[in-house]
Amino acid sequence: MLMRATSGVDPTLFGRVPLTTLAAVDIVLRPLQDGDFEYVIGRLDEWWGGRSMTGSLPRLFFDHFPTTSRIAADGATGATVGFIIGFLSQGDPSVAYIHFVGVDPAARGHEVGRTLYEWFSETAHAAGCSTVKCLTSTVNTGSVAFHRAMGFTVTEAKDYDGPGQHRMLFSRSL
Q1: Which of 75, 105, 124, 149 could form a disulfide with 28 if both were Cys (CB 3.0 to 4.6 A apart)?
Q2: Residue 28 in 3-state DSSP?
């Protein structure tokens, strides 16, 4: 399934305003393909401002969760401008979990992240989920602000991943 978000799209289609610029943005969400892991992993740390993130995104997510993951590509050039890796919880069938999302810094502010999140939410809802969850580190203030703007509740969890490993937990009802 392809999803397009363009400057001519109905602004109510995904509960957001349409894309505006980035050279007449036309974002296509497409399934994962061979080579996507290599492309994403080769840019991941750069997209996170130099933070070492590649250890948090092993290939297994690209191999085993293709129906709940997508690449956001520039519709005009085919260039990858973002991605979402998610899955349906095995422990709680009412929950869908977003493991990782990335947007090329040059494409930020052009609804790529919002488009990916809305696609995932629609996919999760169609699969019977009633909640989307995800998390980030406490230092990722941009992510916290993005999730709040997307309607997620935000909770700090002390020692979530072990002593001193605090996380910000996000949850949104579908």
Answers
A1: 75
A2: strand
